[in-house]
Design goal:
This protein is α/β, with parallel strands linked by helices. It has two domains: 30 residues; 105 residues, no CATH class. 33% of the residues lie in helices and 28% in strands. The chain is flat, with a radius of gyration of 24 Å. The C terminus is likely disordered.
Length: 160
């Protein structure tokens, strides 16, 4: 009987510590951005991009994804909330990038060179959608198989 009580207490402590770590991981996921200005992007494919994802310049967080919706032309409309002190030239490019092979998607901004700066509500003229890893693998495998068939056909042709 005493062993059961000890096991229950240890189990409760383990559950409490696990809950604490989950809470800590959830609340400390990075710098919070509550105010700033909004920029708009449209993508053909957002992949696994989610609301709250980071917006980065040179790997540094400068904003977050505020919302994702489908636009009237059936593209994904993504609204970014940028830090107020970050100035983005109008010829900059917004692209969806991935941190690692199976990491989270985020918006990477390649900063342009124009002197004109984007203002609240402005839209990126140039965007690059997410790369679909499944499609990429199919193209590589399909190209490899087709390439081998072509080489074997060429070899057959040469020997005949």
């Amino acid at each position: 009987m005493r062993g059961n009580i000890l096991e229950a207490v240890v189990g409760a402590i383990v559950l409490f510590v696990a809950a604490f770590f989950l809470y800590f991981a959830y609340t400390s996921n990075g710098e919070k951005i509550d105010d700033g200005y909004e920029l708009i992007t449209n993508f053909n494919n957002v992949g696994g991009l989610v609301v709250g994802a980071d917006v980065k310049i040179s790997g540094v967080k400068v904003g977050i994804v505020k919302s994702i919706s489908v636009d009237k032309d059936y593209t994904a409309r993504v609204i970014l909330l940028m830090k107020p002190n970050i100035k983005i030239p109008v010829d900059s490019v917004a692209r969806i990038a991935t941190s690692g092979l199976i990491g989270n998607n985020f918006i990477a901004i390649n900063v342009g060179v124009e002197e004109m700066i984007m203002q609240n509500g402005d839209k990126f003229d140039i965007t690059e959608s997410a790369i679909n890893l499944e499609d990429l693998i199919n193209k590589i495998v399909g190209g490899f198989i087709n390439g081998n068939n072509k080489e074997s056909n060429d070899a057959t042709t040469k020997t005949n």
